[in-house]
């Protein structure tokens, strides 16, 4: 049976148009090959003109921290072999922007027409902690501080909760408190918790509570284990955001899918940043490979269907138009949310990459704000 897009366009025709659009994107997409992390850039004049228009913009992977949190994170990760890739020069520019709201963050939002940022902490300190006695009160303090930021600037910010995954039952309670009392829009979990993953049985209570509350879980990257990182020995350039984080996070997401979480909680939503951590471009490969493997658990649907139905992706980072066009063709514009990854990706370059991507005004509205309003109930 031939499927039709909402506007009546057949899937074959849509894919053809998307492919043609990708070929006609300006070759350099200068924003995608622009400044390194932490460097400033000036948006092209065309982007400034569009940003001054009436279209609402919501950015949903936008980080904050305090100096104390940054120091605690540095302390807990000190000596970890898999964290030795960081170039201090690249991060020294970004960290002050995490702490400041009035001198840097809000002016940037106003300059680029970003109406709302959805805040989340930048550090995976809670996932690094192993004891409940430390992690539970710390999570509450983080969420209370985030809520205070949101109250201090009405209409400009919303929030994702931080959860003490060392104590799953308490994490579920904290998620409920954050959503019902602090009006947060879901939770961001920074990858594995000391190499325990969210598909494991002890974390079912978090998925159950998120489904009951009708809020998503945003899965953010974390470092691979020391054993997994051996493949990068001698190649620190491939660690972190270059490659290792994407592989780690995509694998974590696939563990969640193949474990049957979405069969058990079919209304659950998992959000993946960085254009879906490569998964939208591998749907056929995943289904083909899954069919060839011995199965530990029988799923109700192909792997690709869970990605299309239970996963949302964001544009966080400096991604080029051709990547976004592929994601739109694979998942549809209804499954994509705008994000910058502030302050680690340059906001003007990120905006330029998105606004240079050829798409209909209706799809641009969905990705810029409509999908966030629907999924996060903003």
Structure overview:
The chain is α/β, with parallel strands linked by helices and 378 residues long. It has a single domain, classed as Metal-dependent hydrolases (TIM Barrel), CATH 3.20.20. The protein is built from 17 helices and 8 strands. The longest helix is centred in the middle third of the chain and has 21 residues, at 132-152. The chain is globular and about 55 Å long. The protein starts with 10 loop residues before the first helix and ends with a helix.
What topology emerges from the helices and strands here?
Layout: H1 11-24, H2 45-51, E1 58-64, H3 67-77, H4 88-92, H5 95-99, H6 105-112, E2 116-121, H7 125-128, H8 132-152, E3 157-159, H9 168-180, E4 187-189, H10 204-213, E5 217-219, H11 244-258, H12 261-264, E6 270-272, H13 283-292, H14 303-310, E7 311-314, H15 321-331, E8 336-337, H16 347-355, H17 361-375
Parallel strand pairs: 1-2, 2-3, 4-5, 5-6, 6-7, 7-8
Helix pairs in contact: 1-15, 8-9, 9-10
């Amino acid at each position: 049976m031939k499927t039709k897009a909402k506007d009546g366009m057949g899937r074959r025709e849509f894919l053809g148009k998307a492919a043609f659009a990708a070929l006609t994107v300006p070759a350099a997409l200068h924003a995608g090959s622009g400044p390194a992390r932490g460097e400033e850039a000036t948006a092209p004049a065309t982007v400034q003109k569009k940003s001054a228009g009436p279209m609402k913009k919501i950015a949903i992977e936008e980080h904050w921290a305090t100096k104390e949190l940054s120091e605690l994170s540095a302390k807990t990760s000190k000596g970890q072999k898999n964290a030795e890739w960081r170039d201090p020069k690249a991060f020294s520019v970004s960290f002050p922007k995490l702490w400041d709201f009035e001198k840097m963050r809000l002016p940037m939002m106003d300059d680029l027409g970003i109406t709302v940022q959805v805040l989340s902490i930048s550090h995976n300190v809670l996932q690094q902690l192993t004891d409940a006695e430390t992690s539970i009160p710390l999570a509450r303090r983080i969420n209370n501080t985030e809520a205070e930021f949101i109250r201090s600037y009405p209409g400009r910010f919303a929030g994702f909760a931080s959860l003490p995954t060392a104590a799953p039952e308490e994490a579920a309670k904290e998620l409920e408190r954050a959503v019902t009392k602090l009006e947060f829009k879901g939770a961001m979990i920074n990858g594995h918790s000391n190499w325990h993953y969210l598909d494991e049985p002890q974390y079912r209570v978090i998925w159950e509570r998120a489904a009951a509350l009708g809020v998503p879980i945003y899965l953010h990257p974390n470092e691979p284990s020391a054993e997994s990182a051996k493949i990068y020995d001698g190649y620190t350039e491939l660690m972190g955001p270059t490659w290792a984080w994407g592989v780690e996070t995509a694998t974590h997401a696939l563990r969640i899918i193949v474990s049957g979480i979405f069969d058990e909680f079919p209304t659950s939503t998992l959000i993946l940043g960085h254009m879906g951590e490569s998964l939208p471009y591998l749907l056929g490969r995943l289904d083909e490979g899954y069919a060839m493997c011995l199965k530990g658990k029988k799923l109700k649907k192909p792997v690709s269907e869970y990605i299309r139905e239970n996963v949302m992706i964001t544009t966080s980072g400096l991604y080029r138009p051709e990547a976004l066009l592929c994601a739109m063709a694979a998942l549809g514009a209804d499954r994509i949310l705008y994000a910058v990854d502030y302050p680690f990706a340059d906001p003007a370059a990120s905006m330029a990459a998105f606004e240079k991507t050829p798409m209909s005004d209706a799809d641009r509205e969905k990705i810029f704000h409509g999908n966030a309003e629907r999924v996060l109930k903003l």
